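Fold sample X.
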Amino acid sequence: MLVYCCLWRIITRLQKRGQKEKSVDFTTLMLRLQETGKQLDEDKDKSGDAYIYAAAQTLEAILGEDTPIRMQGLILDNLVKKSKKDQDFIKSGTFKAFLSAFPLCISSPDSYSAPKIGLISYASRPCNEGNFPNDSEKAYLFLTQSYIATAVNEPFIGYELKRERMQSDVLDSPEQLKTQRLVQEEIRHLKTQGCQHIILLAHAYGDRRINRAADNNSSLIPTEFLEEVFQTFPDINIYPMVRDVFPATRLRERGYSEAAFEILQAGDHSGFPRSVKADYFRDLIPVYTFATLHAIQAEERLQSGFCIYFLVSDRKVSNINWTERARQHLINPDSDSRIHPCLLAVLRGLHFIEAERGVYKSQLSPVLDPFSWISPNTVEEAGEVKVLHTRRKGQVLLNYRAVLTHVSQVLHRK
């Protein structure tokens, strides 16, 4: 909490100085130095590195509310025990990964049709789940990350895609998930930035995969929420979406200038719906697939597979025109609308702006899953640490991010 308050004060002072000089935008980079690399589970508690790592991950996320920020780690032992060539490779890899903190340009010949497009990626995660006597109600940590794509003519016709603010909130009951105040605030914020098309990309912790029970995969897009959003923002084109990631083995050689391949039209996904058990009132329509071809030796995150985006079309909303606008732009690209390639350009850009590998062989390699903060591999990546372990109750975890969310709301007087 002390480190966060100190860094927050530094950032706010820099922003005030920037306002005086009429140059407010800047990007913050964090370099995390640690002595050793990954350790065995029994050694984590003794060294304390897991707690420092969780704290650093939380600081990066919570400071994202005020500034575009990116953190990278550097293991000091590797700079001592490795050869000079390996040391240079480690250093360059660490600093190339910082490129993901900055905006990028992605081509789209029809970008003039939608000068500004917003995207809100959001997720929920339990933050007081347990088997304690007074735990009758759960609380949820609610997270959002916004992006803005702005049409540009240089260096080519397309979009400049940049990361906007990251927000978090603690919800005291499951009922608050149905209204999602934070998402509506972000829609209002993107509207003030000039966005007339906004993609809502929902990810719920613990949801089933898409090819299981389809209606259970959209717990963050309930009908009540869609109804309220459409009524509150009738002049904005809203695209409620979910996605799923399927790791796969690459079956052929990747070309020198080839980074990925795509399925661009809903009609080309015609075989997929046969495996989806859809609700009568709600359709999950596959509209875009981004498939990566980059294979690496990593057990935690396979970088070869398919990321499929689904449009959620709910016929329970009171006005069918609200959902049909989204279907027209994303399902029927052959119509007069030129919005379809613009929306896909934004989804495509997510896989490149979140890649942390830099440029390799004159090419920026995309990442399969752009939202690692939503599905972390360890509790430390989620900003949680073990504070107690009992034989009968199991592990007790402390959620750093839920704690700092309360501190942030005090500092921002929310």
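Fold sample Y, listed below.
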Amino acid sequence: MLPVFIQEFFTNHQDLLWLLVVFVDLSITLLLFRLFGKMGLYSIVVLNIMLSNIQGPKLTVIFGLETSLGLILYAGIYFATDLLSEKYGKREANRAVMLGFATSVVVVVMMSFSLLFLPSADRQMALDTHSALLTLFNFTPHFVLGSLFVYLVSQNLDVWIFHYIKHKTKGKHLWLRNNVSTISSQAVDTVLYALIVWWPLFWEKNPELGMMAALVAAFQLALAKYLFKVIIALLDTPFIYLAKDWDVSKHDWHDPYQSDYDASHSHTQ
């Protein structure tokens, strides 16, 4: 898809590629917010939860540490919900969290159905595609339920902490609530994910390790992931300050039929 020289450059500069993708994700969030208001932020939550689930199993090495590729887009969800919290309030942020949850459930259900269909045996492409889909979406029940549970807990905690700090500081110190809410909720997310998802998965795939060795391996990966989550949380601070004073009300979606109904209804009162 990309020119060969670009592929070769980033093959040799993986750390730079990681930073670039972080900035691209945050910039896309701002762009969609600028163009579509809160609906743009809703779309980021949906897009990022789907893409992070697809990219999640891909492990890579950044700054000498093994981490999941999916955490970039997953961490971007926190930025989107924090911006929703700041601009539209707690209700809209929680709505986005639940929209992401519902999307995840639908994707899991529909992809589970798709895996039941047998591929055409006469076409190698069909066999290869089916094998790839099995790799990406043939989740175990504990993986699916664990991931959904961790998402709900951490995302709702992020929204709650954000508004708790905003109330206590009387709306001042955006940098504080943005970073503390994300970093603390990401810590909970990381610990729960290591215990509920990675630990059983490592133990199942490598039974010879034993229970405690699998736990250590799970937390080693989790700690590396958490370090990158903290970095992303710090990097998104200038982005939320850039967007906090934007007036995008003209781009926010309003139901014209509801507006007409409200107007006519008010005249009859």
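Sample Y note: The chain has one domain: 4-115+137-247.
Also: The first strand starts at residue 59 and ends at 62.
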